[in-house]
Write the structure tokens for this entry.
Amino acid sequence: MTHDSLARTTALILAAGFGTRMKSQRSKVLHLICGKPLVYYPIKAALDAGCSDVVVVVGHGRAEVESYLAKAFGAKVRTALQEHQRGTGDAARAGLSAVKEAERLLVFYGDVPLLLADDVARVALALDANPKAALAVATCSLDDPSGYGRIVRNGAGSIVEIREQKDLRNDAERSIREINPGIYAASVPFFRESLASLEPNNAQGEFYLTDIISYAAKKSCQVVGVDSRAEVLVGVNDRRQLVSAEETMFLRIAEAWRLAGVTVRAGARIETGVTLGQDAVIEAGVHLRGETDVGKDAIVDVGCVLSNVRVGAQTVIKPYSVLTDSTVGQSAQIGPFSHVRPDCAIGDEAHIGNFVETKKTTIGRGSKANHLAYLGDGVIGAGANIGAGTIF
Ligand code: UD1
Ligand code: CA
């Protein structure tokens, strides 16, 4: 959902951290969820919400992250460098240097893949709705708040502080279930002032972005809390959370295609970049990856794995076939147990049967290779019949 009122809003997305808990050589935000890097999703949310500018703060694994961003988003996303990873507050400061004056700023983290446009837009819009407020922050309540910063309120119910897990002082604080999902909206001047005041006086010796809340409270500035949907605000810090967020996303993608008129059986896994035609049937255990497109009325039967494959309308891919970087025409039949390797173009009404492997091969309209063959670097015209045992 695009909001016109976010037209002068810059989204600042923090993605420079070490991601220590991933125990990985690679930047955390490049780990894949449903076929796209983690950081793709919060950026998409910012763009979908209608933010006029998106700045991603990069640092750890910078070269790789920047090259991904350029490839995936081009000029729509700018980057700012956080030289040393000294905490989220320091990252936000680094990001500010790339932000133009006199705009509103929405700051959130690059490790929250389930976030949607509406979740960020609502925080920015809460500022408009409360002219007296200096800062709006998302909040939500979790049965198990461990790992998250806790929202501390005063006797009057106002938000006065966010306290990190490692800095909790007593049982009262440990019993707080209201947590900080990590979406903040304020004017650029408020961010400049509050971020300039940060000190690394905490258990981790870091500059905490969350300390802008106590800064606001000390200046008697009003902070609005924006109730947010707990299930979408999951931060990914380790691989357990990576996989658990991915499971949620696979379910979400499958539900969306079902509502759009595609039969997606339970247990099929459809990645983010995939498109499906009406009345297509995707059976259990199928994995559709990358930029795969399945045409109308096509069937992809149990256990098939398709990566970057275009499948024409009414084609049937029978069980346990593996197809990669290729195209299949309309009303064709592939499988069971076929292996279509990169750069094949299988024509309309063609048949590729069991234990047939093809690579860099064009197969003309209506041609058949029904069993046990290897067809590599070849061109087969229309109407041909390739017998069992053929190798070329
Ligand atoms: C943070 C919040 C916590 C909140 C949680 C929500 C702080 C201090 N804590 O904790 O209150 O509940 O997110 O998910 O903000 N980053 C940088 N540079 C750095 C450090 C981090 O860019 O120096 C980036 C990371 O790449 C990451 C994001 O900031 O995308 C959050 O950092 P992370 O270390 O995951 O913070 P949490 O401990 O999850
Ligand atoms: Ca995190």
Q: What stands out?
A: Residues 109, 111, 235, 237 surround calcium ion (ligand 2) (CB under 6 Å).
